[in-house]
Amino acid sequence: MNPETCWSHLRESAQVLKKQHLSELLSDSERFESLSFGHDGILLDLSRHRLLPETLDQLVALADACGLKEKIDALIGGAHVNPTEDRAALHTALRTPAGKTLEVDGTDVVAGVQKTLEKMDQLVGILHSGQWRGYSGEAIDTVVNIGVGGSDLGPLMTCHALEEFKPDASKGIDLHFVSSMDGSQLSGLLSRLNPATTLFVLSSKSFTTIDTLANAATARQWLIDASGLAVETILRHHFIGITAKPEKACEWGIPEQNQLLFWDWTGGRYSMWSAIGLPIAIATGMDGFRQLLAGAHSIDTHYQEAPFEQNLPVLLALAGIWNINLLDIHAHAILPYDGRLAHLPSYLEQLEMESNGKSVTLDGADAEHRTCPVLWGEIGPNAQHAFYQLLHQGTEAVMCDFIVPAKRYTEQSQTLQEQHRLALANCLAQARVLALGDKALDEETAAAAPAWKRYRGNQPSTVILIDELTPYSLGQLIAIYEHKVYTQAVIWQINPFDQWGVELGKKMATAMLNELDEPNPSAALDSATRGLLGRITALRQT
Ligand code: F6P
């Protein structure tokens, strides 16, 4: 079957299913069994989507018709799946275990990956044992990661999620993350830190990102001012550079022995598995980091080998395709019911929207189908007190991902265990009310309610139930989302691995920097920009 035939079958099904309410679909007692899928400690529950098992078969036929199997093999095999930058996207190689080989452009990338892991291991050992010394000879006890986007969000999200998994060795090291270009995070933080015992990790694939370089310059100056020492001494004792551009890191002054490298074929938003994951390794120990990699690798294998009908990333992607392209739902909320996953929504915002926020196909034509929806999120219980009103009674159709661990606090206090039960109950209740609306109530009570107390329901959602949150299962979860993104990109025929859309703004900002110093804004600018520049200049002079 060709993709167009598959799309037209799906459109026919959508005509029928658009008229059905989830409350009708959920009255089928077999539904959960036929629409929930388990693999290695993760359960993907698709039973609250407005589709039938037969619809999933049609979606799988679409994936087949789009050549998904070959495209997965191309991704994992190291083909140049990123044609606009003419390179592979080999985040899967970063978690391939030692002993395997993968030749890309004539080089075994797995061997290179393993070498970097060894270097990270040594570095983490030196830090944990108090042997990395600052300019005064005192041991480093504070690490500040300076990076932005993919060089910040993955390590930040993971370190926060796995706080409980810190080995004793890492407990003596405080970890901070600084990303904001305006310096507000750094200025607040520096006043609380001891320069003699603080190490900065400059994380930047390109080593040209102005946000990161501006924060790095402030940190470097702070150390020079505090120590009164030469810049070379400061850089040797207090800066590590993680990058794919060692020549740029050298230019900035990071000595070679303080550099950890990764490769051009690692996309920024796919880089937490590379040396960019150093803060994770510092926080969880190298064992924790390796478990994270093992979890992701197990999903890579599953993605490549499992039939699409049982393949978690593929199924998650197909449910999204159904909602976006067949049911016209273009908003997607990420709702973890676990405070440890507080940064997961922003991590996924970058992963999904920077990857699939595209409107041009691989051939350069206009995309035939709507692509990535608007994604946002928050810790679920907190969002209940913020934007759930819109989910329940607004005019927008929204699809939601509920992410929750089944077990938590198993060895902790009764009250904490009770709090976990509370989170589970709220997660299940919200998914239920979003699906059923006031049909969750008895008919009489629902009908007696005034209009402003009615709940329409019919909002689709996925529940991802994780046995327990561990480094391994977090690795699985993130890899599932990465491969979901790739699967959707294959179906939409777009390139998920470039991000040209962010370049023009960067260029314009550089030009605007000069404008800020001009007494009169350039006539070439638009009137709105000229107006604001004039106002800012006047205010800065007062
Ligand atoms: O501007 C977007 C972007 O290139 C992201 O893709 C990337 O994760 C981020 O900036 C940071 O880039 P770098 O690691 O090169 O500093």
UniProtKB/TrEMBL annotation:
Asked if Cytoplasm is a keyword of the record, the answer is yes
Q: Which CDD domains match?
A: SIS_PGI_1, SIS_PGI_2
Cross-referenced SUPFAM superfamilies = SIS domain
Q: Where are the transmembrane segments?
A: none
Cross-referenced InterPro entries: G6P_Isomerase, G6P_Isomerase_C, Phosphoglucose_isomerase_CS, SIS_dom_sf, SIS_PGI_1, SIS_PGI_2
What reactions does this protein catalyze? alpha-D-glucose 6-phosphate = beta-D-fructose 6-phosphate
Q: In which pathway does it act?
A: Carbohydrate biosynthesis; gluconeogenesis; Carbohydrate degradation; glycolysis; D-glyceraldehyde 3-phosphate and glycerone phosphate from D-glucose: step 2/4
Does this UniProt record's set of keywords contain Cytoplasm?
yes
What is the annotated localization of this protein?
A: Cytoplasm
Cross-referenced Gene3D superfamilies, in alphabetical order? Answer: 1.10.1390.10, Glucose-6-phosphate isomerase like protein, domain 1
**Recorded E.C. number(s)?**
5.3.1.9
User: What top-level branch of life does the organism fall under?
Assistant: Bacteria
Question: What is the documented function of this protein?
Answer: Catalyzes the reversible isomerization of glucose-6-phosphate to fructose-6-phosphate.
State the family named in the UniProt similarity comment for this chain: Belongs to the GPI family.
UniProt-recorded name of the protein: Glucose-6-phosphate isomerase
